[in-house]
Amino acid sequence: MLSEKYKEFTKWVIYQVYPRSFMDSNGDGIGDLQGVISKLDYIKDLGANAVWLCPCFKSPNEDNGYDVADYCDIMDEFGTMEDMDQLIDGLHKRGMKLILDLVPNHTSTDHKWFQESRKGKDNPYSDYYYWFDAPPNDWESSFGGSAWQYDEMRGQYYLHTFTVGQADLNWENPAVVKAMQDVVDFWVDKGCDGFRIDVIDCIAKDLPNDKDRMGPRLHEYIRALFGCEKTAHLFTVGEGNTNDIEDIVLHCAAERGELSTIFIFDHMECGRADKFTPKKESLKTLRDYLTGWQEKTSKHDLLYSLFIENHDQPQMISRIGNDRELRYESATDIAAMVFLLKGVPFIYQGQEIGMPVAHYDSIDEFNDVESIGAYRKYRETLSEEETLEKINFGSRDNPRHPMAWNGTEGNGFTTGKPWLLPHSRAAEVNVENDLAADRSIYRFYQELLKLRADNDAFTTGDFEVISAPEDDFFVFIRTAGDDKWAVVCNFEEERNIKLPFECEEPALSNLGRDTADGTYAPYECAVARAR
Ligand code: TEU
Ligand code: CA
Predict the structure, then answer these.
(1) DSSP state, 184?
(2) What is the structure's pLDDT at 1?
(3) Which ligand is nearest to the CA of 102?
């Protein structure tokens, strides 16, 4: 069912880097491009062949780079354009790809376009943003408060779906479309191989009808960016906001010439009642979301994005796994459940060593705008202790703590003072410890990704679920021609699992099994070829 182009993309394994927190090369406590360059072999050895770099453009960092002040220049703390050229070169020399994070919905209010726009109505940039004499509706910002902000200089209100410093661009203005096309072209000329596109659905609004996303011109805008001769070959993944298969087809079925794939988010609600409230759930919940999407997307020429972590989400292992006694087992079992499915794997930094959520005793230790806003809101009704419990659980800081390369002060991330506190469990959970352990999560990922790369069944092959909906385990098969593989993932309790066909000795297993059938320990998994 998959087109040639999409078959190729199933071989991409994308490692997401949050540059601020990955590796600091110069001791200022902030991760940077030279830091990323120094770790390219670590990423490649894992088995990834592409890097998605969160925004690395000039920014005042009100939302850590998602407030861009210049799309064609590098953030001061991250380095220079020469560093970027070197990074692209370093990746390409290793046969790896670069995916940049494009933020087309809004710019920083420091951006030249906004600075000009606010000067007045006869300015060439006047219509780059949404300006009104009075808020035309009661939209709220994603981070709390009204989405409309009065600007003294212009004497009007502008729209900000996110922070006050992130003004929404007016895509109805053809000059905005052109300006963003120029940004894309600039990076394609530099050698960038793809883009992750921030809140893509937001760029098309329908203001008179109070629709803040998925407006009528959305597909026209996406094509303007990625359906051109110069951009059609790119790998593009949109951060969308739809769980509707019809919409998903419109966004990224191959024949549409729009996006390559889109992040579907419903499974990210596993293990929580809302963003800041945990809910006890079994791996079964995750399994059911995933199998649902495998089946729905398989009917089309679609690529599904396989991910359970990113820079906005508290780590999944702490929500539906056991991040203490069975951290290794949960991390590896979940990896087998997710990354051997049909689609494109995205691994978030630290996931490959089973990084859990962190814990702090004071709100002063937090950085994320969303967490600080939520803290204020919850404090109106909850005690300090109850509030902190919520923030610790749901904070976007969780995945943003400096990468723990080792257990020393600075965690091998920096020789200076890190911009955000070290992860509260960094002394225990870090790369050095993981690699020294008898059972290493990183090495399990290596084996898994190698198996995936070596056998077409796991990339272009078909997916079929074998376990019954009521089973407390997950068995699926991936098949390419005569080559058939079974993936067996147990959940929380010990179980006896009997496959309906004979298998060879497992090629991959987290606890060293020698047979695919039999009694599985909690979170045990095995991958074996059918005979
Ligand atoms: O996030 C978009 C988004 O939909 C947010 O509401 C997301 O759910 C959020 O992080 C709430 O927890 C993207 C980026 O991934 C995020 O880091 C940015 O803050 C946001 O866009 C604005 O650019
Ligand atoms: Ca630095």
Answers:
(1) H
(2) 82
(3) 1
Q: Strand locations in 143-193, DSSP E?
A: 148-151, 156-159, 166-168
Write down the architecture of domain 112-168 according to CATH: Alpha-Beta Complex (3.90)
Is 36 exposed, middle or buried, given 0-12, 13-18 or 19+ CB atoms closer than 10 A?
Answer: buried
Which listed CATH number (3.50.50.60, 1.20.120.1220, 2.60.200.40, 3.20.20.80) goes with 14-105+175-358+396-442? 3.20.20.80
For 238-262, letters b (16+ CB in 10 Å) and e give bbbbbeebebbbbbbbbebebbbbb
**Could you give the CA distance from residue 285 to residue 269 in angstroms, rounded to a whole number?**
9
Burial string for 440-476 (b: 16+ CB within 10 Å, else e) reads bbbbbbebbbebbeebbbbbbbebebebeeebebbbb
Residue 482 neighbours by CB distance under 10 Å: 7
Task: Find the helix or strand (DSSP H, E) in which 179 lies.
Answer: helix 174-190
What does the block give as tokens for 490?
């147990």
Average pLDDT per 10 consecutive residues for the chain, totaling 531 residues: 95 98 98 98 98 98 97 98 98 98 98 98 96 97 94 98 97 98 98 98 95 96 97 96 95 96 97 97 98 97 98 97 98 98 98 98 95 96 98 98 98 98 98 98 98 98 98 98 98 98 98 97 98 92
Ligand 1 pocket test: which of 111, 199, 275 has the largest number of ligand atoms within 8 Å of its C-beta?
Answer: 199
Name the residue at shortest CA distance from atom 6 of ligand 1. Answer: 142
Please write down the long-range contacts of 391-394, taking CB distance under 8 Å and 24 or more positions apart: 391/276, 391/363, 391/366, 392/357, 392/358, 392/359, 392/360, 393/272, 393/276, 393/277, 393/278, 393/314, 393/357, 394/272, 394/275, 394/276, 394/277, 394/314
Q: Are 300 and 1 in contact (CB under 8 A)?
A: yes
- Residue tagged active-site, from 63, 77, 193, 239: 239
Q: What is the pLDDT of residue 144?
A: 85
Q: Is the pTM of this model over 0.90?
A: yes
Q: Is 239 annotated as catalytic?
A: yes
First to last CA, the chain: 25
Which DSSP symbol is given to 55? P
Token digits of residue 447: 């084996």
Domains 14-105+175-358+396-442 and 459-529 share a fold: no
Q: Which of 102, 159, 162 has most ligand 1 atoms within 8 Å of CB, for mutation?
A: 162
Phi, psi dihedrals of residue 332, rounded to the nearest 5°: -75, -40
Q: What is the CA radius of gyration of the chain?
A: 23
Q: What residues are paired with 303 via a beta bridge?
A: 261
What's the gap in Å between 360 CA and the centre of ligand 1?
23
Q: What is the CATH number of domain 459-529?
A: 2.60.40.1180
Q: How high is the pLDDT of residue 14? A: 99
Residue 269: predicted pLDDT: 97
Write down the pLDDT at residue 143.
87
Residue spans per domain, the chain = 14-105+175-358+396-442, 112-168, 359-395, 459-529
Distances (CA, A) of 43 to 176, 258, 364: 36, 29, 33
